[in-house]
Each structure stands twice: as structure tokens, then as C-alpha cells.
Specification:
By secondary structure, the protein is α+β, with helices and mostly antiparallel strands. Helices cover 24% and strands 29% of the residues. The strands form 4 sheets. A 6-stranded mixed sheet has the order 3-4-2-1-16-15. Strands 5-8-9-10-14-11 form a 6-stranded mixed sheet.
């Protein structure tokens, strides 16, 4: 199969679980009626975006997504990559149009050996030293190969979902219970700091994996994810390695760099209204599509030309997502056209 155009998308499913089964503490299970509304809404969104590869976050149960595909008539279109989704935890998954998958998908849970988050920083004698003991992703990262054309290398797609900005709960910790009056006024600050540390560590771990995949190779890479942080955040900067964006007829590229589709779209827009999440009236871009130099317009190694980005986010205004079946994140869709660079 040799595609001339293709689309990718990242889609947070907002806790897609089988009806009646438990989800996170404090969340009511979906009723049959709620699940049916949710399945109908997800199916309609998938039909509308018509992407060749869809990265999925917040999937609890493989059967739940299989039901969505069957009910919407999309099971003949897509292969569902969601083997670990047995209902007991959230995983990252993907939909790949039939005929595109290359090789077996892999779920990566442990941080790579090449990551050490500890230092005494001899260049800064005032530094107190840092030791971070996190050793795994909260939600395993999915790595899946797709072959868009027979005459080029397999594209490696990573689907990820990092720790949210929601403060980590600490009031059940032994140290908190020993002296609650000391810590109770600061639970939000402590919890937010812990969430940030976890998200940052996950970004660094994925970056190590990406560098191992990309350095000194011509492997095309796409990252689809709810990274729970913005375009210019430290989280995204760690993932991308902050490559330079060229203008005009400038030519270059970055061996291990990733380019944000949001920035690529901004180069073509007169106004940026990109947001994928709303919390307390704050609109943020938490969901991202990141691409290697093979998908960057100004790269000498370009294979695919960026052809635009769209976001389905009208549903973020819904007051009750349970009642409508909608999700709480926007869906990011990015288009590419086959246009190899001709020097």
C-alpha cells in the first residue's frame, strides 16, 4: 500500500470502560444507557475525523472499544491495538487502518536504563542535590509500527498519556497522618509538585526512548498523546528537544528533534485558537501530535508535507459529559501529503 495522503489523530476517550465496571476511586461506573451514548458519540467522531492512525488514551477495556467499532460499522476499517486493556487499569491504545500495521505492537511500562534522574551538580555548589526514584510510566506507552509506503521505512508511532496537573493525593500517606496539622494547609502545593515531578520524569523517559529510536537513523516517528501540558511547557520541550523552526526557503532538520503540529499550523494561521481542554474556564492545549523531520516542511529529509491541523472541541462546552456521551478533551487531527524533498 502506497499512500499519497494520510491522517493521524489523538483522542482521549474519557474513561471508556464497560458498563457497570469500576473506574477510578470516586467515579461512578457507566450505566448501560450512558455507555450507549458514549459509544455512539465516539463512533461519530471517528467517522468524522477519518484518520488512518488514531492514538487513544483512557481506555479501560478492549471490549468497550470493540463495541464502539462494531456499533459504528468501523470494525471493518480499523485494527484495534489494545491487548493489555482488561478493565483493571487505563492504557494507551491505537486504531490502525487495516493493512498499515507493521510488526507487533509493544507496551512500554518501565523507564529505560539510560535514564538517571539524580545529581549533586558540581557546577552549582549551592545545589541541594536531586534524587528522583520514579521507575515506570503510570500508563504504559504504546509503540506501534505502520507502513505508509512500501518504498520507505516503517513509521514508529508512540501513544502516550502523562500524569495530569491534578495534585497527587497525599492525605493517606503515613508521614501526613503523623502530623496532619503541619501538612494539611499545603496539600495542594505538595500534590501539584509531585504531579509535576512525575509528568516531567515520564517526559524524560519517553525522550530517552525516542532518542534511541531516532539518533543516527532515518526512522520516521510520530508521537500522539495527552501529555497534560502546553505547547511551550517544559514537558513538551523535553519531548521535542526544541528544534529550530525555519522560514522561507531555509532547509535543515533535526536528527532527534520533534516538531509540534500546533506550531506547524501556526505558521499557516493568522490567529491561534488551539485548545483541547477547559478547566475552570482556562483553555489549554494538552493534547499533541509531534513529528520527526520526515514530516517537517523545511527538512532536507522530508517525505511528507504538513497539510493542516484541525481540532474537534465544540463538545468541551457540554455541561454534563455523562448526559451527552462526549469526552472532556478535544480531538486533534493532522493531515500530511506525500511530497519528498527534492534538492
Amino acid at each position: 500500500m502506497d499512500l499519497e495522503r494520510f491522517r493521524v489523530a489523538t483522542f482521549n476517550l474519557y474513561n471508556l470502560q464497560m458498563p457497570g465496571l469500576d473506574m477510578n476511586p470516586g467515579q461512578r461506573p457507566w450505566t448501560d444507557a450512558e455507555f450507549d451514548r458514549k459509544a455512539s458519540w465516539i463512533g461519530a467522531q471517528l467517522r468524522q475525523i477519518d484518520a488512518d492512525v488514531v492514538g487513544l488514551q483512557e481506555l479501560w477495556h478492549r471490549e468497550a472499544m470493540a463495541r464502539v467499532l462494531a456499533a459504528s460499522g468501523l470494525d471493518a476499517e480499523y485494527e484495534l491495538l489494545a491487548e493489555p486493556a482488561g478493565g483493571g487499569r487505563i492504557i494507551c491504545a491505537a486504531l490502525v487502518r487495516h493493512g498499515l500495521r507493521a510488526g507487533a505492537p509493544q507496551w512500554i511500562e518501565n523507564f529505560p536504563d539510560g535514564l538517571r534522574l539524580e545529581t549533586d551538580d558540581p557546577m552549582d555548589p549551592q545545589s541541594p542535590g536531586i534524587r528522583v526514584a520514579i521507575g515506570r510510566f503510570a500508563r504504559p506507552v504504546l509503540r506501534a509500527g505502520v507502513r505508509l509506503r512500501e518504498d520507505h521505512a516503517v513509521v514508529q508511532v508512540y501513544v502516550t498519556h502523562f500524569k495530569s496537573k491534578l495534585p497527587t493525593r497525599v492525605d493517606t500517606e503515613p508521614w501526613f497522618r503523623e502530623d496532619p496539622d503541619r501538612y494539611r494547609p499545603h496539600t495542594t502545593a505538595i500534590g501539584a509538585a509531585l504531579a509535576t515531578i512525575q509528568r516531567t520524569a515520564e517526559a524524560a523517559a519517553l525522550r530517552v526512548l525516542l532518542t534511541a529510536e531516532m539518533k543516527g537513523t532515518v526512522t520516521p516517528v510520530i508521537v500522539l498523546g495527552d501529555v497534560n501540558d502546553g505547547q511551550h511547557s517544559n514537558t513538551v520541550n523535553i519531548l521535542t528537544e526544541q528544534p529550530r523552526y525555519l522560514v522561507g526557503d531555509g532547509r535543515g532538520g533535526a536528527d532527534i528533534g520533534l516538531y509540534t503540529a500546533q506550531t506547524l499550523q501556526e505558521y499557516r494561521d493568522t490567529r491561534d485558537v488551539y485548545y483541547t481542554h477547559v478547566h475552570e474556564d482556562l483553555r489549554e492545549s494538552l493534547d499533541h501530535v509531534l513529528v520527526s523531520e520526515q514530516f517537517y516542511d523545511n527538512s532536507r529529509r522530508r517525505l511528507w508535507l504538513f497539510d493542516g491541523l484541525a481540532i474537534n472541541n465544540d463538545h468541551l462546552g457540554d455541561e454534563d459529559h455523562r448526559a451527552t456521551g462526549s469526552g472532556d478533551h478535544g480531538i486533534v487531527v493532522v493531515r500530511f501529503a506525500y511530497r519528498p524533498f527534492r534538492g
